[in-house]
User: Fold this.
Amino acid sequence: MKYGHTKKGNKMFTPIDPAVAFAVQNKQYAESLLLNDVVEPGKKKLGKVSISNLGHFLCQRITGSYTTIEAKNPQEPAEITDTGIVYLRGKLIDGSNQRSLFNDYIPLNLFLSPGRTRSAETTQTPVPNDTGLFYPIELNYLFTINSDILLEVYNSSNVAQEYNIMFHGMRIREVK
Amino acid sequence: MNNPILTGKEIEFDTVRQPVPQWFYSRQILKNDQNGLYIGQNWNIEIEYGRAFLLENMYCIFKNESGNGLNISISDATNSRQFFLEGSRANLLATPGGTNNDAQLVPNPFTDDLTGITYSREFLSDLPVNSSKHIGYMEPYRGNVSLNFKLPNQTQTPEEEITLDIVLFGYLIVQKNLEMWSK
Assistant:
């Protein structure tokens, strides 16, 4: 891919014209949408993030994390530990046409990175995989204006789990 | 990444004919055939009419008590085409690539399990997805993605089953020559 706006000069390092960049940026600019939810134990819940009426949203990458806690002793006082077990599984749906992008409920660790994260519910010191470098996962899809990104999530733990998913992409302001 | 700020060109898109990302998930139970060969069920994925499927990436995790790694072989059952050399290490082809940590579980009481086997709890990894090999395999809309799983040269005990959670990621792409997609 050739970057930059001028036809002359070194293609490996072509200068960017700020005037062009500003003009484009007024119509299309980078944006990240957050989907944050807590799912009660043994329940399913439909998480939702609104695309709003600002314009279409071209998603390009996703990142996400989730907790992996369980009450070892369900009696009071509950002893909550970070087991490293992935209790959440979800199905991603395009809310504009109810099209499911997953064929089944997929464990969150199979499509989210960096994945497991610490939970405030436990004082235990786990070894979560939230350190070090990670790659965002590719998801190239245009979610249309005024629609929703839906994620139906099951929690099979005996305590509530939290997850955070961020959709990274471009806001397309000008609808042709 | 197609960034209009860098390229100076606005992104053009087609809301109707755009490629649709699709994740296909399956839990494969691989059983020993007493000859050291673990074989899974055929996994058939029906491609919807009017779209081709471009298989891009594969993510898998598996139960691996012995910790010796997992060799895997996946082929398209319709034409026996191998996606990679037989007996390749799974962790070189897909991430997270498995675990040998028994303390990590994936309870699975809810899923519409494609294999038809019900498992209450399985020992699988919590490792996150980092990256994976780009496969780049196109399946036309008339066909089904039909995968054979085979694990050669395993060191597990013959009685042991190997559970493999696998996700195929790709895009459903419209066949523009069909009348249904004409403008």
In short: Confidence is low (pLDDT under 50) at residues 96-126 of chain B. The helical segments of chain B are 4-7, 90-93.
